[in-house]
Automatic annotation (TrEMBL):
Protein name: CRAL-TRIO domain-containing protein
CRAL-TRIO domain segment(s): 13-162
InterPro entries registered for this protein in UniProt: CRAL-TRIO_dom, CRAL-TRIO_dom_sf
Domain of life: Eukaryota
One Pfam entry name: CRAL_TRIO_2
């Protein structure tokens, strides 16, 4: 992660892209912190600004009650929006103990083969506090509604598009076929935010 813009501009970028958003609840009534991985501008954010933003804008709003994280991995590319292993570890270590203890579950949407392999081999060692045991992999949006209240969560349109791709190209689930063309066709920061789908409430 590297910083090429001012701290204020970085904070404004996080707000504009809605990378982190607390809204909706899961089927157990827990608040959900939704994280859209594709929107994460890793090349423009410094680790310090990100940690400060979470400490000031996100963690206080979670309160002292159990909550869940919905991490949407759809369209994440290492060169574009992946912060790196050391940064992930630093962010996790910076989470206050009370917040970490209240994290009950992490719904991991569209994980992909590489993510599964990495977390299976390294997740237990990189993340303390039993985070690996809280992971629930979800391969399709339809399966997400078994865990999350459908009418309370908005999803970007590209998440549904990826689901459609998986129906016609199932080997993408196992890393045997790439969705590279689709991902980079809509990789511009501004265009990523523009199309949210309300199919989740239909």
């Amino acid at each position: 992660m590297s910083s090429q813009i001012s701290e204020i501009e970085q904070e404004q970028l996080i707000e504009k892209l809605e990378i982190f958003k607390i809204h909706g609840r899961d089927k157990r009534g827990r608040k959900i912190l939704r994280i859209i991985g594709k929107f994460f501008p890793a090349r423009f954010l410094s680790l310090d600004v990100l940690k400060k933003y979470l400490e000031e804008k996100i963690f206080p709003r979670l309160g002292r009650k159990p909550f869940a994280v919905l991490y949407v991995h759809t369209g994440v590319q290492r060169s574009e929006n992946f912060p790196g292993i050391s940064a992930l570890r630093a962010i996790y270590d910076a989470i206050p103990v009370n917040v970490r203890d209240n994290l009950q579950e992490v719904y991991f949407l569209h994980p992909g083969l590489q993510s599964r392999l990495f977390l299976a081999t390294c997740g237990r060692f990189l993340f303390s506090g039993g985070l690996y045991g809280k992971l629930t992999y979800i391969s399709r949006v339809d399966y997400l509604w078994e865990h999350v209240r459908r009418n309370e969560i908005e999803m970007p349109e590209f998440v549904y598009d990826h689901d459609d791709d998986l129906e016609y190209r199932p080997m993408m689930d196992y890393g045997q076929e790439s969705d590279h063309a689709r991902v980079f066709a809509g990789a511009a920061v501004d265009s990523s935010v523009s199309s949210f789908s309300m199919r989740c409430i239909s």
